[in-house]
Design goal:
single chain; alpha+beta; 4 helices; 9 strands; Cyclic Phosphodiesterase, Chain: A; 180 residues; 4-stranded antiparallel β-sheet; 5-stranded antiparallel β-sheet
Amino acid sequence: MRAFIAIELNKEIKNNLAQIQTYFRKDYPEIRWVPPQNFHLTLKFLGEVNAGDLQDIKSKLTVISSGFRPFAVRLKGAGFFPGSYNPKVFWAGIIAEPELFIFAEKINSSITQGDNKKFSPHITLARFNRKFTCGEELLNRIKSQVPEGWGGMQVGCVNLMESILRPGGPIYRRIYTISL
């Protein structure tokens, strides 16, 4: 199964992000907007995981999580990967306590499955299939629409998620949840 470790977002944040998508959808039809039910903060992408490794990942995630208490995150700002010229991903930024970064690093160093990319906290709002040349314009318009940010929340748990790939886009299913 294809899996990742993530923090699910609260309803307020999902609604705020969805409102921005709705506002800009008609002006940028070439953008593939992420459905609001799929918004999440990825801590580590695991890729294909076999059933034998799944229990090991759950055990490690439980041990890691036991050393952390709930912490706050706020969403603020937006940008593109790799940049505003010919972007591949449009994202909302995260401002968080140091615990988020320590938690993500502990997960990355303890769970060997998947990628070992440096943690870059963000929420993917959209993806681009082809060249998009209006990146700076979109960013400026969003900055004028979003006064101070997208909202905030207390993170009290982390989830092991399955990503089921479908022609219409992925479906995410929670496999395991552990409290902090």
